[in-house]
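Intended use. Records like the one below are meant for learning the mapping from a protein sequence to its folded structure. Do not use them to infer anything beyond what is encoded.
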Amino acid sequence: MLGWEIFRHAVRMVFRNFHDALRVSAVLYLVQVAASLWVETAMPKGARDGDAFEMIPVGSLTTALFLGVAAVISSLWIAVAWHRFVLAEEYPSGWLPRWHGDRMFAYFGWGIAISLIVLFGAVLMTIPVSVLVMLMPPLAIFMPFAFTFFAAWFGFRLSIKLPAVAMGNPLKLSEVWERTSGSTGTFLVLALCTLGAIVAVSVIPAVLGTAAPSLAFALGAIANWVVTMVGISILTTLYGVYIEGRRLG
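Structure written out for the chain above:
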């Protein structure tokens, strides 16, 4: 099945190029880890738990905003750099990849736009699904799974635009949609593999959360790095297969 082959290729891409993956992402990913660690240790507990009545000191709020912006920038930097490493063989010269500010800004904008389109599609999907649930109430239990798979399927198809943005290719969403037509089964299998892998790598940190919080945080950070890099690699692979016509090695 092509969906499974794409997922497997993306995983192999990360670990086959493990040293380069670290050079592209390690320093930048530490920014995100530092932001998460600061929230866990320095933010008031009520604020971490979503208590709207918890007063946050101005200094903490400023630091949180700064770290949040830094984490977003580092995420964009990693994504654009990894796409370009795989697709254009743009190797990092040190422990920081090349800066492509214009590509990163465009990547951010298209990421927001695609997220809104997927959200709008999910909202439209609620209409027929709600009618079906009214006719057959037991189906309500499957609604969260249906929406999750719909969002993953829809999101994967549209997100092929993101590697194009990283490469400076003015590919239209309509072209992406046309190139991926007839591949519903592939994208559903890919969504199933991806969501299953995310759940699998999250189990151990979740289990250790109360018994060994420090170890759980460390394992969670490693798991999130793997998920991040594999996720970017999936989009890279989809772009290679559907846009550039590459074959899976």
